[in-house]
Amino acid sequence: MAISRSWMRAVALAAVTALGTTVPATGSADAHSPAHVQCQGTETVTYRPGVTLAARNIEITTEGRFSSCIDSTGKVTSGSYGERFTIFAGCNDLLDGFEDRRTIKWSTGDTSVIKATGSSTAVAGQVVTTLTGTVTQGRFRGRTAVQIITLPQPGVLQCLSTGFTGATGVTTLTIT
To answer: What is the dihedral of CA 136, 10, 100, 50, to 10 degrees?
Structure first.
């Protein structure tokens, strides 16, 4: 299986982002500039009804808040996003790959629409989700975006009983 260069760049950028350092993305409009924006914050996810081992329709609501952002112009200081959608899933399906269209509302009043693909892995009791994509509209249009979200992993007992109903964790976003 051949690994594309863009995938390797995304993995490298995600790894560096997790360490709190920025690197330029090759192939971007300004490949030698630092990240246009780097943010840290939290994401809260709720599941209704709770996610159990038996797959069923689950309404998912996400609320993200980037409380600390640094951008290359000094204008963006924070941001937020929210989504609501329904999936058919059980505890064993939460790590499946997915596509997303996320709209970030910035402290400046404008927005960025990010079209991304995502994947999740379970590591040491946590679910680490990486979204990688492109800003298709608004502020930072044409730039690469990588968001990493770390949430607690659902417990087996929760999956066997009433279900896993939500989690809150940390998130980072880098747009280069």
So the answer is: -150
Note the pLDDT tens digit of each residue in 74-113: 899 999 999 998 888 888 777 677 888 999 999 999 999 9
The single-letter code of the amino acid at 8 is M
Residue type, 99: E
Q: Which residues share a beta bridge with 152?
A: 126
Q: Which among 33, 28, 35 has a CA at the least distance from the CA of 6?
A: 28
Residues contacting 67, CB < 8 A, separation 6+: 40, 41, 42, 78
Cβ atoms 118, 129 nearer than 8 A: yes
For residue 24, whether the previous peptide bond is cis, meaning omega lies within 30 degrees of 0, is: no
Sequence-distant contacts of 131-137: CB under 8 A, at least 24 apart:
131/100, 131/102, 132/10, 132/13, 132/14, 133/100, 135/175, 137/111, 137/112, 137/113
CA distance 174 to 35: 7
* Structure tokens belonging to residue 53: 């081992």
The phi and psi torsions of 64 (rounded to 5 degrees) equal -120, 140
* pTM greater than 0.90 (yes/no): no
Q: What is the dihedral of CA 95, 67, 22, 133, to 10 degrees?
A: 40
| pLDDT of 14 higher than 50 | no
